[in-house]
UniProtKB/TrEMBL annotation:
<dbReference type="InterPro" id="IPR002347">
    <property type="entry name" value="SDR_fam"/>
</dbReference>
<dbReference type="Pfam" id="PF00106">
    <property type="entry name" value="adh_short"/>
</dbReference>
<feature type="transmembrane region" description="Helical">
    <location>
        <begin position="46"/>
        <end position="66"/>
    </location>
</feature>
<protein>
    <submittedName>
        <fullName>HSD17B2</fullName>
        <ecNumber>1.1.1.239</ecNumber>
        <ecNumber>1.1.1.62</ecNumber>
    </submittedName>
</protein>
<dbReference type="GO" id="GO:0047035">
    <property type="term" value="F:testosterone dehydrogenase (NAD+) activity"/>
</dbReference>
<keyword id="KW-1133">Transmembrane helix</keyword>
<feature type="transmembrane region" description="Helical">
    <location>
        <begin position="72"/>
        <end position="89"/>
    </location>
</feature>
<keyword id="KW-0472">Membrane</keyword>
<comment type="similarity">
    <text>Belongs to the short-chain dehydrogenases/reductases (SDR) family.</text>
</comment>
<dbReference type="InterPro" id="IPR020904">
    <property type="entry name" value="Sc_DH/Rdtase_CS"/>
</dbReference>
<feature type="transmembrane region" description="Helical">
    <location>
        <begin position="15"/>
        <end position="34"/>
    </location>
</feature>
<dbReference type="InterPro" id="IPR036291">
    <property type="entry name" value="NAD(P)-bd_dom_sf"/>
</dbReference>
<keyword id="KW-0812">Transmembrane</keyword>
<dbReference type="GO" id="GO:0008202">
    <property type="term" value="P:steroid metabolic process"/>
</dbReference>
<dbReference type="GO" id="GO:0004303">
    <property type="term" value="F:estradiol 17-beta-dehydrogenase [NAD(P)+] activity"/>
</dbReference>
<keyword id="KW-0560">Oxidoreductase</keyword>
């Protein structure tokens, strides 16, 4: 009888001991995750869901299925692995200088304001210094922000910008480059003229390549960062976005290769991959301007095949549906800042609702299933047909 009592007491002590161990690991992990939220290093998303799953499901599952010291060890390792994929703390701003392209509006404009607010020196380049976005930067930002006119397709503009940056960074070099300038046209491949193809590739791809190569000596000097803004359509394709996807696919290849080649210099390259957001590209006057440009560059046979009515219907649908895109750019700006300042910058930053999940799922799907999925989220209206099919 006494033996049974001793055994029961032993079991109770064992349960209490392991409960304390599990609780200690849980508290430590919860505090570490909470600190990430409080320091604005990440928000609710795929990784935070994993953190919650480990906290609420990991402990009981390990206790029930593994038990003993092995269970505690497995739970601790799960917490450690999840913590390792959370954003790292940031480097001190110090006297770091960053050049950002495409600051007339959207991501670039918001990023400059954010970097200025944390004390960074910023060379903000705009297509026009008289644009509303450039004027807003002049009014809202401190003297740390240098506004420069830059057309990324102009070699002369690039040379002038690089010379200016050299003069204002001295021997420190340039810490960061954010290739954000880009243009988007919605047009099927057959209706996209060579003129438009070349324009999209010149701005979205070759502009980034030219500027990056011109600034690499300054970035190598500081062992800094390069952040290239691509898109989820750089890894998946969608009808009507052929020229844009082509440019972003190529930008991904450039960025991945550059990342490998720059490791020996201590330079890190990150890729930002946003989903759809309501920026300047989605405003009605911009969409109508792009529609007119596309139609004017189309040959007569293609105009007859597709018809003005078909073209107008597509663009009216885009304008009507533009309000479905979020205008809160916070997650993209946070990713850009992380690429520039994180102690452990990620290679890729998918941004937007479901972006991580889409990028994980899409490559695993059979092509026909992937095509069906893409057609469901496509902005192409389903009830219009080209003139040649009527």
């Amino acid at each position: 009888m006494n033996t049974n009592i001793d055994y029961d007491e032993y079991l109770d002590d064992d349960i209490i001991f392991y409960s304390i161990l599990y609780s200690s690991v849980t508290v430590l992990f919860a505090m570490a995750v909470l600190s990430k939220f409080l320091t604005n290093e990440f928000r609710f998303g795929f990784r935070s869901v994993l953190s919650l799953a480990v906290l609420f499901l990991g402990e009981p599952l390990c206790q029930f299925f593994i038990k003993g010291p092995s269970g505690v060890f497995a739970f601790a390792m799960c917490c450690l692995v999840i913590y390792s994929i959370l954003p790292a703390s940031h480097l001190p701003v110090g006297n770091k200088a960053v050049l950002v392209t495409g600051c007339d509006s959207g991501f670039g404009n918001s990023l400059v304001k954010k970097l200025d607010s944390i004390g960074m020196r910023v060379f903000a380049t705009c297509l026009s210094l008289n644009s509303p976005g450039a004027v807003s930067l002049q009014l809202a930002c401190s003297g740390r922000v240098h506004l420069l006119q830059l057309d990324v397709t102009s070699q002369k503009d690039i040379e002038t910008t690089v010379e200016y940056v050299k003069q204002h960074t001295g021997g420190e070099g340039l810490w960061g480059l954010v290739n954000n300038a880009g243009v988007w046209y919605y047009s099927e491949l057959e209706t996209t003229s060579e003129t438009i193809f070349r324009k999209v590739l010149e701005i979205n791809l070759f502009g980034a390549i030219r500027l990056t190569k011109a600034l690499l000596p300054l970035i190598r000097k500081s062992k800094g960062r390069i952040v290239n803004v691509s898109s989820l359509m750089g890894r998946l394709t969608m009808e009507g976005n052929g020229a844009y996807s082509m440019s972003k696919h190529a930008l991904l290849a450039f960025s991945d290769t550059l990342r490998q080649e720059m490791k020996k210099w201590g330079v890190h390259v990150s890729i930002i991959e946003p989903t759809g957001f309501y920026t300047e590209n989605m405003k009605e006057h911009v969409i109508n301007s792009r529609k007119s440009e596309l139609w004017d560059t189309m040959d007569e046979e293609t105009k007859i095949t597709y018809g003005q009515k078909y073209f107008d219907s597509i663009y009216n649908s885009i304008i009507e549906g533009s309000n479905r895109y979020p205008d809160d750019l916070t997650c993209v700006i946070r990713a850009m800042r992380s690429g520039l300042l994180s102690k452990r910058p990620r290679n890729r930053y998918p941004c937007g609702t479901g972006a991580d999940f889409i990028m994980m799922l899409y490559p695993l799907l059979p092509v026909w299933v992937a095509d069906k999925l893409i057609s469901l989220i496509s902005i192409m209206p389903k009830d219009v047909r080209p003139a040649g099919l009527d």
